Amino acid sequence: MDIDELMDKKKMIVFITGIVVVATATIACTLKKKAEKNIYRAEIVEPVQPRKMGVYEKYIKRIVDVICAISAIVVFSPLYLCVAVLVKQKLGSPVLFIQNRPGLMKNGKETIFRMYKFRTMTDERDENGELLSDEVRLTKFGKWLRSTSLDELPEVFNILNGTMSVIGPRPQLVRDMVFMTNEQRKRHTAKPGLSGLAQINGRNDINWEDKLDWDLKYIEKVSFLSDLKIVIATVMKAFVKREGITEGDMATAEDFGDYLLSRGKIEQGRYEQKQKQAKCILT
After folding, report:
1. For residue 16, is it within any domain?
2. I want to staple 193 with a disulfide (CB 3.0 to 4.6 A). Which of 2, 150, 151, 167 is the partner?
3. CB of 181 closer than 8 Å to CB of 45
């Protein structure tokens, strides 16, 4: 191979790489703009003191997220298609479960974004039109999806549109957020993630206070090395050992408010007030 041929191949590689980079950036920006149209701020909550982000978290982490998200979609596209077909056959439409979750704070208050997951439950209702309990609606297939974490595959698109990150505190429910103290809500000064410190240190097998403490520990120092360690540990625990998927004998994890009420850590009146606040945020 002569020098000219070698140079031509290098130019071709550079050209293709450039196209991939531009296409990736374009897709990410387009999805981000689309997602921003559905994002709103939880105005009725008390503001929390903002946290200063480091260089990695502020500038580099987003680039890493986009690269990981695009790579995952390309590599696991057959798996996405297979799971989608199975969900359609066993649970029907829609294939995706979309739910509003609290995300990264803006001016001290949480933003609310749409999180995507594969459905794991049916839409069975009682004679009054109310949804049946999670235990009844969660099928064997749904339990399998959760035990393998395959139901979380669509969250990669949340990472791509900028509402989530690969690593960060897991996005909890709005009805969980309202029961958090202002100190615990500081977890939302970091972008929510597919996995985090709490997930590799017990996931749903640890109590709520410990879970939130792990999230606060994560935001103390966000770095590429710590994120990489969490990614490796997540693969081992969620996909290999399948630890902490559910809480005890419950079909799904216990809500934070229910946890506090059942243990006498909050009064019934305060509990009901917070539940109303959560509904106001979602409407």
Report:
1. no
2. 167
3. no
- Which residues are CB-contacts of 268 (< 8 A; sequence separation ≥ 6)? 261
Cα distances (Å, whole numbers) of residue 213 to 47, 190, 226, 248: 20, 14, 16, 20
Would you say the C-alpha torsion 254, 247, 180, 121 has a positive or negative sign? negative
Give residue 91's domain range.
Answer: 38-282
Number of domains in the chain: 1
Half-sphere exposure of 112 (CA within 13 A, CB side): 21
Q: Does 156 reside within a domain?
A: yes
Whether the model clears a pTM of 0.85, i.e. scores above it, the answer is: yes
* pLDDT tens per residue, range 37-79: 999 999 999 999 999 999 999 999 999 999 999 999 989 999 9
CA distance 273 to 131: 22
Residue 28: inside a domain, yes or no?
A: no
Helix pair angle (140-147, 77-91), 10° resolution: 160
Residue 231 lies in a domain: yes
